[in-house]
Amino acid sequence: MTAYPTLKLFIAGQWIEAGEAGTMDVVNPATGAVIAQCPKAGPAQLDAALKAAGDAFPAWSATSGAERHAILRRAADLLRERAPEIAKVVTAEMGKPRAQAVGEITGSVDVIHFLGEEAKRRGGRLIPTRGNQLIAQMVTHEPIGPAVLLTPWNFPVNLPAKKIAGALAAGCTAILKPAENTPGSAQLLVECFVDAGVPAGVLNLVHGDPGPIAEHLVASPVTRKVSFTGSTAVGKQLGALAATHMKRFAPELGGHAPVIVSKHADLARAVTMCATTKFRNAGQVCVSPTRFLVAREVYDQFVAEFAAIAGKIKVGDAGADESVEMGPLAHARRVAAMEQVVADTGGNRGEVVTGGSVIESTGYFFQPTVIANPAPDSRFMLEEPFGPIAGIVPFDTIEDAVGIANSLRYGLAAYAFSGNLDEAHYLGKSLRAGMVGINQLIVSSPETPFGGVGDSGFGSEGGEEGYLAFTDTKLVMLAKAGG
Question: Catalytic site residues?
């Protein structure tokens, strides 16, 4: 395998190098250099992918769960074998440090394995009858149909893997449209499924401009399910389009995760975990801890120690130096967004304790940044920064902290640190989010659901929910013939 693959479409079991809509540049965000040309699918190629998914659905949905599991297991094993080389592509496309890229890929292996196992486990259930005339009441989960999978760039292997594995395990066919700046990672993932024996038409891959492609695929009568991970604004637009055509829609959208640090917390542990996790993937993580709400009794110490850790993070081109701890932002627009957030501070609107500036280079780098006491109406407190900026706010009572944490319409992840058991239970119950971590910052595993509430979307990926999301529930009530 070369360091970066020749990019292609994959439609009806065939790799296609030419895109009918032309090509687009793939740029290394650490250097600004163009590293590849990616073919853009035209309307006819999108229609071909839709036809392939529609034609393949009857046979794939009738394939036994054990056989679907076997194919997904082989795909996962291939992904594990190829992880070191695929990680190089992840780093080249979006700047993620190599260790983080490998971790993303190996985590994806576990997700595929788990969802493949669900294909064997999900047999439905029997419900006891109330009278003698009914013999049985059976609930089954039927594959919903061809699915369109739309994924972003920040986890270019893990997010497509979740959607592909959930869809294929449930018996659905799929069309994957990955982010335009990380096509190579998605292509190498698809190759694992193809090489594992996924039949022609069951999994298709298209690249190109996200708006026109999404509109074309979602509006098609072939499509029965749309799974989208991305921004809240785009998710609302796609949700409206899907609703117009009565398509099932599962959005996993933005977040602005609060972290409550109680006076009862193990402060040293909380500071270290929060500061190191916040800047993972340059803060470009939907569940990234971002708004740190800290008890006033320990606020000054938390700010000082957090800023000290942030100031020592090594930033640079992870593709050239494996000791780099934080890579670049995905593109120039993210850098401009960070500058806007920092510009809305100063005076009584927040103090930049460390960082706050662009790192001059040919790539898209921004300093790990800590803002102390950002104003309640500041850009940082109201909008997801999706970058290496943390804000730290003092609170007086735990109820005040919960009020601040729940004040936004985002509700993806929330976290809290407390050594008081009653307080920890209160926080777990009171924080409004789809996922809550208490005394730890991990809210995702292959076995657990991943999803949010409010403007962070609805529905879940991962866990048994990640399988059931691609199914329709059917009830069969069987009575004796002749009454």
Answer: 252, 286
